[in-house]
Design a protein that fits this description.
single chain; alpha/beta; Transcription Regulator spoIIAA; 4 helices; 40% helix; globular
Length: 124
């Protein structure tokens, strides 16, 4: 099994969490605690899954829970491999998340949403 690595980076509009390795019942709780520790409710959450080689049902439950705990913010998944994408599709979990081909696309989508919700300056 490839060890799980979880790193966070602040974005202007939220947080990017880079997940690499494998997620199963032995480390899903660790992933949940790292996501909860790095993400503030209501801010955008981008999970870079391009380095995620394996995800089982316990890992899927963590992603679904993160989407539910986002409190109105959308969970953006970036770069999931075909096996992970397939799991999201056959379970219907992808409907609770936005899936992007790359982390750059996910970050761009988050920034557009963030700037789109800001009040416009008053005209003189």
């Amino acid at each position: 099994m490839t060890p799980l690595s979880v790193e966070g980076r602040r974005l202007n509009a939220g947080v990017l969490i880079i997940v690499a390795g494998e997620v199963d019942a032995t480390n899903a709780e660790y992933l949940k605690s790292r996501i909860d520790g790095l993400h503030r409710p209501g801010q955008a959450l981008v999970l870079d899954l391009s380095g995620l080689a394996f995800l089982d049902s316990s890992g899927l439950a963590v992603l679904i829970g993160a989407a539910e705990r986002a409190h109105g913010a959308v969970l953006h998944l970036a770069g999931p491999h075909s096996r992970v994408r397939r799991l999201l599709e056959i379970t219907g979990a992808w409907q609770a998340m936005t899936v992007h081909e790359s982390v750059e696309q996910a970050i761009a989508a988050v920034e557009v949403l963030d700037y789109g919700e800001r009040p416009k300056p008053a005209e003189r």
